[in-house]
Amino acid sequence: MVTTVIETPIALAELKRLSRRIGSDIRLVQGPGGNTSLKIDDVLWVKASGAWLADAADKDIFVPVDLPGARRALADGLEKMPVISLPVAPDGAPALRASIETSLHALLPQSVVLHVHAVNSIAWAARMDAKDELAQRLRGLVYATLPYHRPGLPLSRAVAALIARQVPDVLILGNHGLVVAARDCESGEALMHEVERRLELPARTAPAPDLARLCALCADGAYRPASEAVCHRLATEPRSLELATTGSLYPDHVVFLGPALAAFSAGRSLTELRREFGERGIAMPMALLIPGAGAIVRADILPAAEAMLQCLALVVERIPPQARVSYLPAEEEQALLDWDAERYRRQVTAAR
Question: Which helix or strand (DSSP H or E) is residue 62 part of?
Fold first, then answer.
């Protein structure tokens, strides 16, 4: 059962293939993060909120949106976008929502827009001292940078003000990620890879984890060592540990892992920690860093959250030791955690 029927265009197949490639590369997109879109006449096909780009070839993850209506909604200060048709769930509720970044995609005039959480781009976007070097590295490209704005309406308003002066092909979003816009999928993908190539940063090396120590700490089964080796580097490399435990660098980290990760001494007991959190009436952290040993995650962690942990590790090991870093303010972290759109996205990915 559907609301209004709209035929899926053949041109969308190319975006699906591209989205799957992007979504399958942890260096570009993690879990349900990132979104892509295609404009065909007055219809904007955009990734559904909470959907995984990696699923694009196997599932219907794109939502048709009334493009002129979306632009009017933004001008009127509305966050909800006018969807043309959606599958309907058995309880009568729409099974999909348009991405919370739909208005951003609608604003940019180019046919194809790719928004990724590429690790090199985030490593630059989290720095306060990147302006001059970005200018050198991105020379010749039509690019712009924006300071952090909460995803959705605040970010779209900032982009609207920007494109009133100049329409960029590349956007570096402070403490967030990368947006590229192009005439077609092929040129959009090429531009995305070109930007990441120019922004590539070397990763610091880190000592190996102490898995025996981690397993002993997790003996009661409530936690387990992180699955991917890269995650342990968050705890075994001092600068990465400092960066990861000082604050939150970008939104998806907050949404799926909570604010800044906690360091936990292996000399303490997790039973004691659970008691402390229970007395405060809050859930145990999704992940804990054991300095010098590695990372442990809750046994019930979602694949999306563990993918975000990988992303964090890949990002912080690319931030130079001397770099000046910007963290999300506490009020922005709380706004993300309290936002209905982000709660919905967590629910969707939990049901995947």
Answer: strand 62-66
Instruction: Take residue 70 and report the two structure tokens written for it.
Output: 């979306």
Q: What is the pLDDT of residues 298-337, one digit of tens each?
A: 999 999 999 999 999 999 999 999 999 999 999 999 999 9
**Nearest 10 degrees: Cα torsion 22, 202, 174, 56:** 10
- Quote the pLDDT of residue 90: 53
Residue 285 has a pLDDT of 93
Selected from 3.30.590.10, 3.30.465.10, 3.40.50.300, 3.40.225.10, the CATH number assigned to the domain covering 12-198 reads 3.40.225.10
Phi and psi at 217, nearest 5°, equal -65, -30
Residue 3, pLDDT score: 45
* In the block, residue with structure tokens 């990763």: 203
CA neighbours within 13 Å on the CB side: how many for 111? 13
Q: Which residues contact 127 (CB under 8 A, 6 or more apart)?
A: 319, 323, 324, 325, 326
Domain range summary for the chain, segments of one domain joined by +: 12-198, 211-317+321-350
C-alpha to C-alpha distances, 133 to 27, 44, 128, 233, 250, nearest whole angstrom: 21, 35, 11, 27, 21
Express each pLDDT in 211-223 by its tens digit: 999 999 999 899 9
CA distance 41 to 61: 20
Answering whether pTM is above 0.85, one says yes
Handedness of CA 149, 134, 120, 103 (dihedral sign): positive
